[in-house]
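Collaborator request, handled under Task 6.
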Amino acid sequence: MKESKSRGLIAAIASGISFGFISIFSALLRNEGASSFEQTFLNLMYGALVGFSILLVYSQVRKDYVKFSLNIELQKTYLLQGFLLFTMLIAYFSSISIGTPIGEVALLAQIHPIITLLLARIFVREQINAQKILALLIALLGLVIITQPWEKTFFLSSVIGDLLAISIGIQFAIYLLIGKWSMKYRVQTSSIVSIAWVLCWSLLVGLPILFVLALMPLPQEIVAFSLTSLLSLTVLALGFILMVFGSLISYGLIMVSNRFRIGSYKTSILLLGEPLAPIIFGALILGEPITVWYLIGGSTLILAISIVILTSKKQEY
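C-alpha cells returned to the collaborator:
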C-alpha cells in the first residue's frame, strides 16, 4: 500500500513539473511566429498520433485493457476529458499568444482548487465552513493583486489573457472531477490506455471547433494558420515537445495519481509548484519581469488554495 501511495505522489510531483513547462514552450512557439491555432493543431495531431500508436500496441500486447476501454460509459468520460483538454490547450495558447506573461498565466490557472470547492458545494452540497469562506476571500484578493485593476492601462491590455487563464483553472477543476468520478470504470484498464483515448478524442472534437472558430473575427495571433509556418523544423520540434509536456505526460500522470488514490488534496498541493518554472524561465529566457505584485498576488493565491486543500484533506473531490 505504501509503495502504491509513493508512486502516486511521485506521479503528482512529476505532473506539476510537466505542467510548468507548457507555457514556456508555448511562448517559444509564439516567438517563432506560431499562432494559438497552429500550436493547438500541432498538439492535437501529435497527440492523436501518439494516442493511436499506444492503442495499436496495447491491442497486441494487452487486448483486455483495450477491450475494456471500449465500454460506453468509459468512452463518455474520455470524450468529455478530450473536449476539456482541447479547450484548456487553446485557452492556454491563446492567452500566451496575445502577450500575457507566462508567469501570470500559470498563477491564474492555479485557481482550480477554489473552483472545485464551489462545484462541490453546488453538485454534492458539501458544506463550506468559515475557513473555506476565508480562503475564497483571500483568493479573490490574490486575483485582484495579480491582475492590478488600479493600473487601468495594464489591466485593460491584459484582461482577455487573464480571463482565458482563469478559465483554464475552471476547466481543469472539471477535468479532475471527471477523472475522480470515472475511476470506478477505469480500474480494469491502464492509465496509458486512458490518456491515449483522451488524446484521440481531443483531435476528433477539437478540429471541427477550430474550423468554426477560424471563421470568427478573432486576433491574428490566435487564428492565423499557415502550412509554411507549421513545416518549420523549429516549430515542429517545439510543437512535439509541447505535446509531450502539455498533454501526454502532464495529464497522463494525473490519471496515474488518481489510480493510486493518493487523495485530491495531496495532488493539488503537489501541483502548486507549477508556476515556479514559468516565472523563473520567463525571466531568464523571455526577459519577462518578476514584479512585486506577482510575488504578493501569487503568494496570496497559493495561501488561499492551501487553506482550501488542508481543510478538505479528508474528503475526495
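The cover message to the collaborator said: "The chain has 16 helices and no strands. Residues 152-186 form the longest helix (35 residues). Please let us know whether this matches your experimental observations."
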